Amino acid sequence: YRFYFICVSAVLIHKVCLQVTVEGVISGSVLLPCSSAEHDCKPQDIDVFWRHNGSKIVFDIIKGKNSVEQQEPRYKNRTETFPEEYKGGNFNIRLTALNHADAGKYTCLIAHSSEHKTVELIINCV
Ligand SMILES: *[C@@H]1O[C@H](CO)[C@@H](O)[C@H](O)[C@H]1NC(C)=O
Ligand SMILES: *[C@@H]1O[C@H](CO)[C@@H](O)[C@H](O)[C@H]1NC(C)=O
User: Fold this and answer.
1) Among 14, 61, 62, 100, which has the highest number of CB atoms less than 10 A from its own CB?
2) Ligand 2 pocket, 87 CB below 6 A?
3) Would you say the pTM of this structure is higher than 0.70?
4) Which secondary structure element, helix H or strand E, spans residue 12, and what is its range?
């Protein structure tokens, strides 16, 4: 019973801690952070999926390689990645030429370690 309680608390705290908010301005750029607790993964084991508002494909890293084949057209040429950091467990992406529709929730699913990070992007008017 006690064990169950601890687990539920851990899940709730975990969720709150993982929510990150970043702010951007129209036509500016923003770094969407996502890092894993697990390092030293072999490139062929690295699978990471960035999604916007639950479903739109922003960016995929499949077997350690950038994959833009399935990418939603609205993010084409607007995602900057840092492949040299994948080995260290960092899967940050930079989104450029921001517009209003870029606001919302971004999720970074780190499939190989079953981690799930959420970034809320707020677009400010200037
Ligand atoms: C993306 O960039 C490439 C190379 O610079 C260019 O050929 C292509 O037209 C661009 N696509 C879009 C949607 O801007
Ligand atoms: C994502 O959701 C946000 C907040 O609901 C909305 O402002 C934005 O237009 C959505 N963008 C896309 C591409 O779905």
Assistant:
1) 61
2) no
3) yes
4) helix 2-18
